[in-house]
Structure formats: C-alpha cells, structure tokens
Amino acid sequence: xxxxxxxxxxNFLLENDTVVYKWxxxxxxxxxxxxxxxxxxxxxxWMLNLRLQALKIYFSKQxxxxxxxxxxxxxxxxxxxxxxxxxxxxxxxEEVPENIKNTFEKLxxxxxxxxxxxxxxxxxxxxxxxxxxKDSLKEQWVLFEDLWTALKKxxxxxKKYFSSCISLGYHKFSALHYAVWSGGTFLYIPxxxxxxxxxxxxxxxxVQSGWQFEHxxxxxxEWAEAHYIEGCSAPKYGTNSLHAGWVEIFVWKNARFRxxxxxxxxxxxxxxxxxxxxxxxxxxxxxxxxxxxSQVTMLYPCSVLKGDNASAEHLGIALASWGQNQDTGxxxxxxxxxxxxxxxxxxxxxxxGKNTYRGLVHILPQATWSISRIDCDGLILDDISxxxxxxxxxxxxxxxxxxxEASAGKxxxxxxFYLQSRGMDEEQAKTMIVNGFISPIVKELPLEYxxxxxxxIGMEMKExxx
Length: 466
What we know:
Low-confidence stretches: 1-17, 19-23
Helix content: 10-25%
Oligomer: single chain
Shape: globular
Radius of gyration: 22 Å
Mean pLDDT: 80
C-alpha cells in the first residue's frame, strides 16, 4: 500500500482547495468543446480554425507505440476546461479571492515577487488569476501577460509565433493540446533588454480529474537576456489527471535565455510536457529542470540550433519512486555551423521506480565543426528499481566532435560505511550521497528552487513503502 504524500512548508504538493467553479467541460472530446472554449474567450477566427484543425489531427492520429503505458488515462473521465467563479485578469494581488490567494502564498510566490523576481504570473486550473511585472520593465516594452490577454492585446505577435515552433501534428497529444489549450504565459523581450531577476509563472491544477493545457510562448529579440521559471502542482484525489503544457521559445541572434522548472506532481498525474526552442546565430539557451512525483512523466526539451555558433545546455534530474515511470531526456538538432550542445542527465530510482533517459542528438551535414557531449548517470537505491539509457545519436558529417557517457549503479558501500562511521545513520548517509550525486545540476537552479528540490528529495529518501 502506498503512503500518502507528505508536505513541507513550501512544497509543490498542496491539499485540494475548496472553490466554486463557474463552469466545467467534462464530456467526450468534440467540436462543441473546442468552440465553447474559443467563444468564451472571444478568440479571433484564425485561432478557432487552428483549434478545429488540431482536433481533426487528434482524431486521425494513433498513440505512438514507443511511449510508456497510458492505458489508464481515460478520455471519457476528464475535465478539459475548468473556470473558477472569479477570474482575475491582471488584477492586483489583494483582489484575488482569499482561498485561491492562500494556495499561492503557501508556495511563497508573493514574497518571492517582492524580494527577487522581475515578474510573476499565476494560473488556477484553466485561467490566469494574476500577472504582473516591475514598472521598470514595462518602460522597456517588456511584455509579460497570460496568453489569452496577449492574444487580445498583441494579436499580430501571437499569430506570428504561435504553433510555429511545435507543429499541430507533432504527435497525438500535441494535436489535443492545440485543440483545447487554455491560459499560459506570453513573454516578449525587445532587443538589447537584459533582465537580471528571473520571471516566474506558476500553474495550479486543482479540479479533480482535471487536464491542464497551458501554453507558454517566449520570444527574445536580438541581444536580449532573461531567465524564466515555471512551477506546477496538483492535489492527490485518487483519480487520474493530465498535465499537457506546451512551451515554445524563440531565441534570436546573440540573445541568451535560461529556462528553469521544478515539478512535483501527485501520483494521480500523467505529466506529458512538450518543450521546444529555436536558437538563432550566436544565441544560447539553458534548460535546467527537476522532476519528481507523477505516475508517468514524458519530458524531452528540444533545442534546434538553427544559426551558426548557437549553443544549448540541458541539465535534468528525475526521481522515480514506487508506482512511477519517469521517461525523460533531451533532443538537440544541430543545423548551423560551429554549434555546441551539452546534455547532463541524473536519475534516482527507488522502491521499484523506473527511470529512462531517452535522448536524441542529430547533427546535420551542414552543421560542420559542431561539438556535443552527453552524460547520463543513473543511481539505483535497491534491487527492485531500474534505470535505462536509450540514446539516439546521428552524426552526418566528419568534422563533428561528439562524446557520450552513460552509467548506472548503486550507492558505493564503502562511502556508506565511511559516513556511518562518522556518526550518521544509514538514511542520512544515503541522502548525503544522493545530494552529492545531483549537486552539479541543483547548483544551477535559483537558490529558492534548489532548496525546494533538496527538501523534496530528502522527504522522498525518508519515505518508505509498505
């Protein structure tokens, strides 16, 4: 029997909130659902047509055969859209209803905004409840809105970029996402604007049997710099939920961008994210993420190194415990000359959990003199867990330099004995070794998120399964 998930003071897993919903959509997927979502938000005709086109693709596509088992994810027992009775489109924090506000305050979001963030967005189920950035950034024409607001205020920019990075037919769930996407974040940074403090969005899925389809659209013009953080949570109900958020990022010439996320879902959740970035000449992107919780996770951030001298770095941590299948990795496509990429993946498997690194590095013929390095390390804490590495490496020229290293193993008994001989019990010793194992990635996270991840992993290490 599985024990209930524990909580810490600022954990991503919170108890369900008692809220009143204006309306929900919980029927078999149909054109009526798509039209109602679009009509409710007064979308332009081109967006409705895109949704309807995606719906047709969704019905026509089969489930990919290589994916983890999704047979328990029933399309007939879900809520595609849930709107609370209050919607706070860019209102002040004081105007947010108390029960919703309390959820985000437990996560420390208002306090973090005051101390260290350049901007904050918060979405509750299918719609935004709060969005704000510093006045100094507004004066520099930085745009930071929920995506539905951006669609109304900046329709030409949204139309230019929306779905141009991740296509409607990318896979079956891509089509589903585009058919019923709801809310999300829009971030546009003009040329030469360099933002020192991170911007953050947080997505809360509260409704039982809910599906969340937020869409994040980020554009950095030439020479811009920024750091964006996303977090997500959902309570434990005992019924399956789906998180299928999409992230499209465009990093133009000489721009620099970092995307960080820490996700800790309940075991009810199927976490099927798709994230992709297009990197132009001399530009760079860093992906730093930690993934815990969820029944099944499929997460493979993709970087397309389109311009010459473009670069990408992918740093990821996945922890799989009892009843969890973490299928994660990275995709990097080298198109430009002299492009560089690095993948560092760390996984921890315990109590029968399953981790799989699934990656792709594709270096095209024209991507001459490119460099890529891949490091995949799995730490297995018992005899019933597993860790696999499934790399796909395609090099189509002779001037590329590529290195790949993969390892999987258990905790060194000598290290364990040494720490215990210095006064630690076995649990403390294992936790210290695990923290050392993941430290190269944790140190790249913002301080608050790094502390959060260490606490969460410490809690997982203490938790036993009966």
